[in-house]
């Protein structure tokens, strides 16, 4: 029996169900990345990145308070629901007061009670909330002192505590996005403190995080850019249980010239499940082109959905950019045959 999205949500609400729209394992994902916490770029030199991104300088610096506008959050989530999207990936960082490590909080960090209430609201809107905690050494300054204890016994203890707590907070969600992008010197060249795991240590720690997520009942999900410099090794050693989001924000999808196109094809051939990530960060054409290429070239078995990452912040200053990003997803959904 086929029912509409509105009928489904209404039926679930009447039954008091906890099943999420978009929560079924076979439901095609249309996801959007939002940021609750923003202390993930604390060491970046503001003059360089302010000029490169056009973003206000304070969005790239470490602050002891939560930079967050509720009006923008409500706008984004409301527009997502109107567009028919079904998943919201929430980059938590310092945005939550963790019981296990309250020292990571800043002024304005959400209590767990606040987060639970908001998760219920999102589910009622048809949006499946998925937690993201970036454990790349390029984006883990939200860990405060532990950011400088990478691969130590204390580091593993803290990260394990956080993963378990977030799983419980989100009601044991299907996925945990571990980030794990841009852990290299090039992306940290302007940092005052540089940490780059490589070789066996990178694999040891990554596999540790993947197992920690799985032990807490969540499928690990990562940015896939480590593949670009370690192709053979990545294909050989990366578990198929890890959901892959290769990210690419340009317009070249010719397999002869595009590393992104080659990556999507290689992952499909190797049997990885994928949620390709596009954006309006650099061009308005990228997301539609990403969806079109993926639908034509990735098998239905392994194409699990799409993720829009506009790299905005949850601040009113980004109202137009977020609105444009959601419109691009809506347009891609209209032409999708999946």
Name of the level-1 CATH class: Alpha Beta
The parts where pLDDT drops under 50 for at least 5 residues are: 1-23
By DSSP (H or I, 4+ residues per run), the number of helices equals 10
Question: How many domains is the backbone divided into?
Answer: 1
What is the 3D shape? globular
Overall average pLDDT = 89
Query: Spatial order of the strands in the main sheet?
Result: 3-2-1-8-7
Give a quick summary of the entry.
The protein is α/β, with parallel strands linked by helices. Helices cover 38% and strands 11% of the residues. The strands form two sheets. Strands 3-2-1-8-7 form a five-stranded parallel sheet. A three-stranded parallel sheet has the order 4-5-6.
Description:
The model is unreliable at 1-23 (pLDDT under 50). This protein has a single domain (28-335), classed as Glycosidases (TIM Barrel). The protein has helices spanning 5-15, 46-53, 70-83, 112-124, 153-169, 199-215, 231-237, 259-270, 286-297, 319-335, and strands at residues 29-35, 87-91, 128-132, 175-179, 219-223, 243-245, 277-278, 305-308. Helix 3 (70-83) runs parallel beside helix 10 and helix 5 runs parallel beside helix 6 (199-215). The strands form 2 sheets. The protein has a 5-stranded parallel sheet with strand order 3-2-1-8-7. A 3-stranded parallel sheet has the order 4-5-6. Strand 7, helix 9 and strand 8 (305-308) form a beta-alpha-beta unit. It has 10 helices and 8 strands. The chain is α/β, with parallel strands linked by helices and 338 residues long.
């Amino acid at each position: 029996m086929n029912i509409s999205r509105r009928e489904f949500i209404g039926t679930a609400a009447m039954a008091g169900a906890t099943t999420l729209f978009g929560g079924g394992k076979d439901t095609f994902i249309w996801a959007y990345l939002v940021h609750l916490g923003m202390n993930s770029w604390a060491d970046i030199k503001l003059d360089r990145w302010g000029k490169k991104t056009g973003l206000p300088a304070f969005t790239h610096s470490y602050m002891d308070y939560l930079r967050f506008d509720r009006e923008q959050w409500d706008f984004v989530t409301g527009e997502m629901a109107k567009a028919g999207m079904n998943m919201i990936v929430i980059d938590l960082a310092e945005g939550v007061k963790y019981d296990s490590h309250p020292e990571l909080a800043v002024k304005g960090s959400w209590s767990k009670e606040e987060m639970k209430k908001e998760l219920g609201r999102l589910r009622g809107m048809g949006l499946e909330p998925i937690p993201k905690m970036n454990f790349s050494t390029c984006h883990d300054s939200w860990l405060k002192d532990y950011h400088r204890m990478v691969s130590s016994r204390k580091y593993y203890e803290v990260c394990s505590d956080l993963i378990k707590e977030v799983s419980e907070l989100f009601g044991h969600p299907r996925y945990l996005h571990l980030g794990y992008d841009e852990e290299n010197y090039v992306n940290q060249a302007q940092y005052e403190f540089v940490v780059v795991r490589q070789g066996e240590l990178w694999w040891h720690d990554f596999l540790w995080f993947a197992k920690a997520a799985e032990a807490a009942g969540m499928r690990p999900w990562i940015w896939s850019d480590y593949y670009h410099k370690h192709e053979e090794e990545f294909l050989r050693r990366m578990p198929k249980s890890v959901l892959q989001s290769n990210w690419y924000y340009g317009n070249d999808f010719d397999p002869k010239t595009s590393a992104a196109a080659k990556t999507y094809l290689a992952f499909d051939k190797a049997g990885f499940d994928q949620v390709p990530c596009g954006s309006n960060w650099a061009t308005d054409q990228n997301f539609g082109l990403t969806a079109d290429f993926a639908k034509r070239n990735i098998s239905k078995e392994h194409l699990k959905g799409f993720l829009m990452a506009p790299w905005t912040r949850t601040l009113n200053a980004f109202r137009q950019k977020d609105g444009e990003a959601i419109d691009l997803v809506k347009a891609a959904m209209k032409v999708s045959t999946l």
